[in-house]
Each structure stands twice: as C-alpha cells, then as structure tokens.
Amino acid sequence: MLDASGNTVHTHFLNIFLYVGIARLQVSFDNLRQEQKIGTNEFQVRGKVNDPEATLDINEQSVVLTEHGDFSHTLLLSEGINQIVVRASTAEQHVNKTIIVSVDTDELILNMQSPTEQEGYSQSEVLFKGSISDPLASVIIQGHQATVDAQGEFYKRIKFAEGKHQVFIDATNGYKSVRKSVSFEVLPQPLSFEIFSPVEGAEFDKGEVTINGQVSHADAKVTVDGKLADVDSIGAFSVTLNLDSGEHRLQIKAERNGKLVEKYLMLKVRASSQSEYIELIQGGVSEIITYEVPLTSEQRALVRRYSYSLSLRPYGTNFQILRVYGTRSGIGFDYQYSASQNAAIDRYPIELTLTLKDSSNATISSEIVDLILVVQDDNPEQLDLEIISPEPNSIINSNSVTIMGRVNQVDALVRVNNENTDIQNDGTFTKRLELSDGQHQIMIVAEFEGQHQSKIIPISVNGSTPRVIVNVAAGQSVPVTVNVSTSQNVMSQVRNLFSQFSNMPAGVKIDTTGASFVDSETIRMSYNLTTQNQISGAEINVVITLKDGADNALLDYPVIFEVNPR
Predict the structure, then answer these.
(1) pTM score, two decimals?
(2) Which of 51, 234, 252, 338 qualifies as a cystine partner to 285, CB 3.0-4.6 A?
(3) What is the pLDDT along the chain (566 residues), one digit of tens a residue?
C-alpha cells in the first residue's frame, strides 16, 4: 500500500492456489439445511461428495462414501439447538461447513372444539375452532387456511351446502403433520329473502314501481302483493307493480315446500294511474291528453259553454284546450302542454278544474283532474350504473372486499347490499365490505329522479392469506417479490402503492425496491429483506394497498413473509 507520495506504507503476502483441471470439492445434502427443525433425536442424513476419493467426517465421525460419492449417516442429536460440523478433504482441497439445526421431539397435537362430530347446523356458515400445540404450525381446513394466534388457537368460518359433510383438518409445522376429520350435517336452510330496492319509506313520482331482492332458494315462489315475481338461477327476483297514489304496505311472500316467509314494505306514490302524469321536454309539446266529464243524456243536452282553471302555471309552460266534443257518456276534452326552451325543470302537482254550464251560465258539472307535470331537460341523460370491480364470478383472496363503480348522475342514491354509499364529484363510488369465506351475491342499486338501475355481482371469497417463504442468514440481505393480481379495471386506476409491515422481529429491515406491471392484471412488488440476527420461524404480516390518483384505496392485499420456516 502506498501513500500519496508513492512511499510504501504496508506490504502483505497472499498465497493464491490455482487448481487447473481439478473440480472444486463440494458436499451437498439431500435432506439437511440451515435452521432446519427436526422432530427426532436420531436423524438419517443423506448427501453426496463430488469426489468419491475424498474423506468425509460429520461431527468427528468418519462417513463412508460409495463409488459415486453418495453417503448416508445417522446423526445422534439432543433436544434444542445442535451444530453439525462437516469436513471433507482430498490431497489438494479442504471443505469445512457448520449447519445449525434445532430438535423438537414434542408431538404435534391438534384439538377441535367445533364443529363436534355428527353435529347438525341450521345455517350454512360453519365455525371451525380449535388449538394446535405449535403456534407456528399452519392449519388447513378443506383447502382454506385458518388463522392461528400466538397461543395456537385457530378459527375459520366456511359456508357449506345443505347435506352431510366430512371435512379434513390438516396441520403441519414443516417436519410433523397431523390430520383429523369431522363429520356434520348442514340441515335444510330456512327459507329467507332480502329486499334490495326500494328502501323502506321510499317515495315515487309514478305508480310504476319495481321491487328487487334475493331469495335464499332459487326454486322458491316469490309474490309481491299477490303478483308473481321472476326468480333467476341465483335467487335474484324482480317484479313491477302499478300502484295508486298514496301510501302502500306491500306484502312480499316467499314459498317453498310448504314453508312460507313474508315481509312488509312501506312506500309512497305521489302520482299514480288516478293522476294524469304528463312529461314535457324543454322546447317541446306533450302528448294530447283526453279527459271525459261524465254526464247523463239530459245533462249533455243542456251544455252550452265550458271554462277551466289551473291551480298552478309553471314558468315557461303553456296549457291549451284543443277540442271539446260530445260523447255517448259525457263531454270530452283534448288538451296539451307546451314548454319554452327556458322552462324551469321540476315536478309540478297541478289541479285542472273543468266546468260545464248551461245557457243561463248555471253549472251543470265541475270536475277536478289531478295532474303531475314534469318538465325535463331537453337533452336528458338516462341513469347509468357501471360496476368497475369486482367482475362477476371473481375469486377474492381477502375477506375485505372493495366494490367500485360509477354512475352518470352525481346526485343519484347508490346502495351496496342495502348500505348507502358516497358518490364522488366524478360519479365514482367505493364501498368496502367485510365478507366471510364462500359464495356471495353483491347487490348494487342506483336511483335518480324515479329511475332505477340495479346489478347483482356474484363472487367467491377465500380469505386465506398467501405466504412467501424467505430464507436468509444473519447479516445477509435477500430479494423478495410478491405478485398482486386483481381485475384489469382496478389495475388501470392504480397510481400509488403502499406497503405496511407488522410483527417485525428485532433486527429485521424491509425496503421496497420497486414495482412493475407483469401484465394488465398483475403488479410485481419487489422488496429487500435484511436481518442482523439469526431468525427462525418468524412470520411478518404485510398489507399491500393499491390506490388511485385521489389516494383512495382500491385493494388491500395481505401476505405473510415466512422467514426461515421451521
């Protein structure tokens, strides 16, 4: 080493051996690795040395190699942490390595609290609950991963169809496994239904009202005030009624195999078939409306003149009697409304009074006609409901499900599974639901100025948290990648990403190093995990959140980093 003036500061000699034509001596193991957890005191280790002429010692015991360099050796281990020292030598080379393993000979014990054997359930959702002697073990129930807490208690809710079931519960900690089974019966489910729209107390301008809902059994018969509803293959039903003005208490019934359930729904109709409903577009004219004043033949013969009056004349509108004529049963009137281009858009209840008089100006008959005049935009836009995410029949790998959609009327009322949802200025809405594992029908309803749009999105929820295995030694850093997948509609809105880590062992650091699109439905998150300490069997909880440009959460994706699993 030289200083700035070129003077020698330090001299050191390094011996370098170059082996030409000689392969590097290597020892490999088939069933032994660093930080391995072993469930027996006598462990048969197997492996290979790439030079059959080499000598091999394991824990200072000579091991015989076959002509191909293979070996098998019984290790005598003690409970707890063990060091396995491996030395291999030839005339030219020497290899030394130390492998750390832990021995735990305790039996893996799985206890089930529920369901009990041959139990009958009156509901489709069954709670699996129990305990495992090793809290770091994983518990799989019918392909669904259960949540295991620090005390080894686990639980999982799973939905089953009616009938008898045998379910296997598997637990493993990487070196020991245990399986149990339980048989139970999901009893015939009680008949039930939900009303999605309209909501209790809803008010309507027209007497034409559509009732939407969901019945538990698709083969059930559903009626609303005696009118048979259409029920599809997933139990969604719909029926349209023509109601008179006033308040109504609708009776909704569902019947199946002699079973009957019923509910009542209160709503109000401001106009109906008894009121004349007149739609008028700015700058346009209405249809010609006909009304007949009933008279006897004697009264009709006395009619000489008529008059009319309106309780309200909305700005920009004009009323005109087009024709008055005799009929077999009275006097008929044809009338029409027109509107200027700047007529005020609104709904107007109006009373039209028609009066018939004789030659002495005495009143023969006077009739009041209830009108509902609705002045509409000359370029009206129909209510449109779009569901962005999830797509129908999606499989959601989280019990937290985000429903995203858009309506073209920001003043519309939107409900998701009967819960009101806020609408942003651009018409988008987001609703997060907490759902159990199994099949679900998500009902989204939008209402605006008498218009109704509804959609049903069937999805499957599997909340089992995915796991990523991370093997890292003390003082090292390793890259970790996670693929986050969701629908193309959601991915197209992603502008920001956020990763949150919890249950971090001491001395562990995780840095986010990048994110890239794999395809239109998948983002690959890249991390660098560094540990200063020797870690075994740690589980780090990670939640990856995808956000849009307004920092709204689009998706929470949970994952577990299993660091040096046992």
Answers:
(1) 0.39
(2) 338
(3) 666 666 776 676 666 666 555 678 889 998 888 878 787 888 889 999 999 999 999 999 999 999 999 999 999 988 878 899 999 999 888 889 999 888 877 778 899 999 999 888 877 778 899 998 887 788 888 878 787 877 788 888 887 767 788 999 998 876 678 899 999 988 877 888 888 888 888 887 777 888 988 888 878 899 999 899 988 876 778 898 888 878 899 999 999 888 899 999 998 887 545 678 888 888 999 999 999 999 999 999 999 999 999 999 999 999 999 999 999 999 999 999 999 998 988 889 899 999 999 999 999 999 999 898 988 887 767 788 888 888 887 777 777 788 888 898 888 889 898 888 888 888 889 888 888 777 788 888 888 876 778 888 888 777 667 788 888 888 899 998 888 887 777 787 888 888 888 888 888 999 998 888 877 778 888 899 999 988 888 889 898 888 887 777 888 888 889 888 87
Question: Left if phi > 0, otherwise alpha if psi is -120 to 50, otherwise beta: which for 297?
Answer: alpha
Nearest to 235 by CA among 220, 245, 246: 220
Same domain membership, residue 392 and residue 447:
yes
Shared-domain flag, residues 350 and 391 = no
Structural contact between residues 475 and 514, judged by C-beta atoms closer than 8 angstroms: no
- Any domain includes 19: no
* H or E segment and range at residue 27: strand 27-29
How many Å is the Cα radius of gyration of the chain?
39
Distance CA 139, CA 162 (A): 25
- Which of these, 337, 400, 392, 394, lies nearest to 369 by C-alpha position? 337
CA distance 516 to 525: 7
Q: Where is the domain boundary, 352, 376, 400? A: 376
Residue with tokens 């030694």, as numbered in its chain? 473
Note whether residue 3 is domain-resident. no
Residue 435 backbone phi and psi in degrees, to 5: -120, 145
